[in-house]
Amino acid sequence: MNKLKIAIQKSGRLSEKSLGILEECGIKVSNGTGVLRTIASNFPLEVLFLRDDDIPQYVEQQVVDIGIVGENIVMEKKKCVDVIYRLGFGNCRLSLAILNDDEYTGPSYFEGKKIATSYPNLLKDYLSGKGITAEIEEISGSVEIAPGIGLSDAICDIVSSGSTLLKNGLKEAETILTSEAVIIGNRNLPAGKREILEKMLFRIRAVKNASENKYILLNTPDSAIGRICEILPGMKSPTILPLAMKGWSSMHSVVKEDEFWERIELLKAAGAEGILVIPIEKMIL
Ligand code: PRP
Ligand code: ZN
């Protein structure tokens, strides 16, 4: 049977959340320790656990059909792949950092300096955009150690919480770009695989919509229904059910997580009472 092949990070910042998104989509994947390849038991998906740095290349070569990887790596590797979907997790930035004790004087600080990085292409682009000449020391990991051991004057690496910089006596000087986890895909997926991908994306969207919205129930005097409909437009329009008490109704709707507190204030001011807010598990628009 036709299966879609997906690559996810073997171990690192995105591993757990990448598996988590499959799980939330109801796709069952068992990954015992040391297993680098597995098949979902209830969805036509084969999962390969790879080094994140290799994922864009494998997607381009169609060793795998799609992959979950940081956009930072997609941009660095410059492979011919499509960014299909932005996942909204794994947020980080690619930054230049210097030793805590050094005084930062602006981008010209890096003129003539030696910078260690696993992102030589992006760093090169940044430096040439600023007209700065610096020496790039390419290393594949533990970049933050470089200034402390005299390998370089500065680094250019991924910062997420900032704790790795802190632990290594470094401070952020410039942000080159911001990034998040994305789904990338091969440009020539055959129709059968594209169909499976669409099914998966449908589920991912439902999970993401659900996490961005809340279900809301409230009681309102009938006289306030009009005003509350304006505050809570809902997916189509709110559900209104009469209460046993005359002149009162119950209203049900959906509200966006990021507009939530502001709307609650307005609802209270309009006369709503007994407001209940419930998480949504899946939301299909
Ligand atoms: C990055 C970077 C740091 C760490 C920073 O690695 O190289 O080690 O994350 O995170 P923090 O600011 O939360 O401390 P990444 O996850 O990109 O993995 P890699 O080993 O594949 O480069
Ligand atoms: Zn990596």
**Head-to-tail CA distance between termini:** 30 Å
What ligands can be seen in this structure? Answer: 1-O-pyrophosphono-5-O-phosphono-alpha-D-ribofuranose, zinc ion
Count the E strands: 15
CATH first level of the largest domain: which class? Answer: Alpha Beta
Describe the 3D structure.
By secondary structure, this protein is α/β, with parallel strands linked by helices. It has 3 domains: 4-90 and 180-210, D-Maltodextrin-Binding Protein, domain 2 (3-Layer(aba) Sandwich); 92-178, D-Maltodextrin-Binding Protein, domain 2; 213-279, Alpha-Beta Plaits. Helices cover 27% and strands 32% of the residues. Strands 2-3-1-4-11-5 form a 6-stranded mixed beta sheet. Strand 7 (114-117), helix 4 (120-130) and strand 8 form a beta-alpha-beta unit. The longest helix has 21 residues, at 191-211. It starts with a strand and ends in a 6-residue tail after the last strand. Zinc ion binds next to loops.
List keywords for this structure.
285 residues, alpha/beta, D-Maltodextrin-Binding Protein, domain 2, Alpha-Beta Plaits, 3 domains, 6-stranded mixed sheet, 5-stranded mixed sheet, 15 strands, binds 1-O-pyrophosphono-5-O-phosphono-alpha-D-ribofuranose, binds zinc ion
Short description:
With 285 residues, the chain is an alpha/beta fold. The protein contains eight helices and 15 strands.
List the helices and strands and how they pair.
Blueprint: E1 4-9, H1 15-24, E2 37-39, E3 45-50, H2 55-60, E4 66-70, H3 71-77, E5 82-86, E6 92-99, E7 114-117, H4 120-130, E8 135-138, E9 154-159, H5 163-167, E10 170-179, E11 181-185, H6 191-211, E12 213-221, H7 225-231, E13 239-242, E14 248-256, H8 260-270, E15 273-279
Parallel strand pairs: 1-3, 1-4, 7-8, 7-9
Antiparallel strand pairs: 2-3, 4-11, 5-11, 6-9, 6-10, 12-14, 12-15, 13-14
